[in-house]
Specification:
Helices cover 47% and strands 13% of the residues. It contains 17 helices and 12 strands. It has helices at residues 7-17, 22-32, 35-40, 43-48, 53-60, 64-74, 91-94, 127-143, 155-165, 188-197, 214-225, 239-249, 267-274, 284-304, 325-333, 341-348, 352-364; strands spanning 79-83, 102-107, 116-121, 146-149, 171-174, 199-202, 228-232, 253-256, 278-279, 339-340, 368-371, 374-377. A 9-stranded mixed β-sheet has the order 1-2-6-5-4-3-7-8-9, with helices on both faces. It has a 3-stranded antiparallel β-sheet with strand order 10-12-11. Strand 11 and strand 12 (374-377) form a beta hairpin. The model is unreliable at 307-320 (pLDDT under 50).
């Protein structure tokens, strides 16, 4: 059965599947204003934008299996493809060097806008390192920050698990495969939970298997989505150090935990500290300096959602959104008992996409609490 995607989504999928150097495809989007217009522009325009012969061939005749996989994946609920020129594309990531042309997102795209911290480190941490990853991620989630990481074994996995264990905790996994693949395979259940409670993100189309070079590239997205990056155990040759370097190059804060001089997994952190990265021993040493930046990002989210711009701290119920009938409908649909999204859709008459954005804003305002994918008024 043919799959009918929106024209611009289907055209953007064509641009992604063309592969090759990203600059010409970025240029096409900028010059023509949309993926659909860029695809309609034809081979002469593609050549003028700098597309290679192979890219032009793929734009004309994309791999049929890859195109079918992408369309089938995107046709399912909760699947999105965000263009770099779209309003939903996270501003923090858009500002970094080599920002991805598009993002495949399984879950809630607004989670990519949530103020958060990248937690990265060794795939084979010591017991102490694993405990610290969980403790720091727990503290970040309880403070309202999202936890960003790469779904790898070790520190990444412990951080994701800890954020999910916090009622209302939010975490985003950036993967180095297609969004329909799981690596390492033992994280299949964890990846599904993250998609349900936050988002799983990839720049690679569905069907893309794990390849070594894709994981360092993924690290720039982890760093780019985050206000800051904390490194918890990393050897001298470590992907976590790549993430830290990319975060610093993007003007983000970088933090490192010290370790024993006898622990080879601590040497990367010690090098970062010698190079001027901030040494931290407690999560508050990260949460406090990022607070003001997080507040600015929260205001950017309000602007993107065309939401009221009052202060983000709790106010009497209904006063902040008094002029918006949609928020009043949502407020009336909520009570003190956690309610799943599908029930809120039925109660309020609003779409799931609209509710998701509104609920995140109300979380930022301290009015709503998320509990295992359900929502209730904050006591």
């Amino acid at each position: 059965m043919p799959i009918d995607l929106p024209a611009d989504t289907d055209a953007l999928l064509h641009l992604v599947l063309a592969g090759g150097a990203p600059e010409p495809r970025h240029g096409l989007l900028t010059a023509h204003g949309s993926a659909a217009a860029a695809l309609r522009a034809g081979p002469n325009a593609w050549r003028a934008a700098g597309c290679s012969g192979e890219q032009r061939t793929r734009l004309l005749r994309p791999d049929p299996d890859a195109l079918s996989r992408g369309r089938q994946w995107l046709a399912q609920p909760g699947r999105h493809l965000l263009s770099i020129d779209a309003d939903d594309y996270p501003d923090l990531l858009r500002s970094v060097a080599r920002a991805p042309l598009a993002l495949f997102v399984h879950g809630d795209p607004t989670a990519l806008w949530h103020p958060g911290v990248a937690v990265v480190g060794s795939r084979t941490p010591s017991p102490t390192g694993a405990e610290l990853a969980a403790e720091f991620a727990d503290a970040f989630a309880r403070s309202g920050l999202a936890v960003f990481s790469g779904l790898a074994a070790g520190i990444d996995g412990r951080a994701h698990h800890a954020a999910l264990a916090v009622p209302g905790g939010r975490t985003v996994a950036v993967v180095g495969t297609g969004p329909d693949r799981v690596f390492p395979p033992r994280h299949d259940r964890l990846q599904a939970q993250i998609a349900e409670r936050g988002a799983v993100v990839s720049e690679y189309p569905p069907g893309t298997e794990a390849r070594a070079g894709q994981f360092p590239a993924r690290n720039r997205i982890v760093a780019g989505l985050s206000l800051g990056t904390v490194v918890i155990e990393a050897a001298l040759r470590s992907g976590a150090l790549i993430t830290a370097r990319l975060a610093a190059e993007s003007g983000r804060e970088v933090f490192a935990l010290p370790g024993s001089v006898r622990n080879p997994r601590a040497r990367g952190c010690h090098r970062l500290i010698r190079d001027g990265v901030r040494l931290v021993e407690h999560p508050d040493e990260i949460i406090e300096p990022l607070g003001a930046v997080a507040a600015r990002l929260g205001q950017a989210l309000r602007t993107r959602l065309n939401a009221p711009t009052e202060q983000a701290r709790p106010t009497p119920p209904g006063s902040t959104f008094r002029s918006d009938p949609d928020y009043q409908r949502l407020w009336q649909a909520l009570d003190e008992n956690p309610i799943p999204m599908d029930s809120l859709v039925l109660r309020s008459g609003l779409t799931a996409a609209r509710l998701s954005a509104m609920l995140q804003l109300m979380e930022l305002d301290g009015k709503v609490v998320a509990v295992h994918g359900c929502y209730c008024r904050k006591p």
